[in-house]
């Protein structure tokens, strides 16, 4: 499991992503808060991330990087609006984490086939598996 610093990095990256369109909307904030709870990050540490940056740490394992990419896809779609800027940044995050560009593109393509653009975890995993075999 991730260290506390890694968890803060995950959340910091997600907060920066949510701020791309200028303001964090209520559904985005609620999603971020739920992720913080699931990661075991307390409310004070979570709140502090909105005002300060933390060290960026790329998740070590492939599974953790795919999970973080999935979180970012969910975050992008939680407000039902995807901008070109968000899509470009999401691709950049994926590439920076070492994920295959073709897998990233496929996820962004198939998300439109699912209600609320929520790609089921197993579908996402299968996409990445197929691009690594």
TrEMBL record:
It comes from the Bacteria. InterPro entries: TerB-like. This is TerB family tellurite resistance protein.
């Amino acid at each position: 499991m991730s260290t506390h610093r890694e968890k803060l990095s995950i959340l910091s990256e997600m907060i920066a992503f949510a701020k791309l369109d200028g303001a964090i909307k209520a559904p985005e904030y609620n999603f971020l808060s739920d992720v913080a709870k699931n990661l075991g990050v307390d409310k004070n540490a979570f709140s502090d991330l909105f005002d300060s940056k933390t060290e960026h740490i790329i998740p070590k394992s492939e599974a953790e990087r795919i999970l973080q990419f999935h979180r970012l896809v969910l975050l992008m779609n939680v407000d039902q609006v995807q901008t070109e800027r968000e899509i470009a940044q999401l691709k950049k995050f994926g590439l920076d984490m070492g994920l295959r560009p073709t897998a990233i593109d496929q996820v962004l393509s198939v998300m439109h086939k699912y209600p609320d653009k929520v790609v089921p975890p197993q579908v996402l995993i299968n996409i990445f598996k197929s691009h690594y075999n």
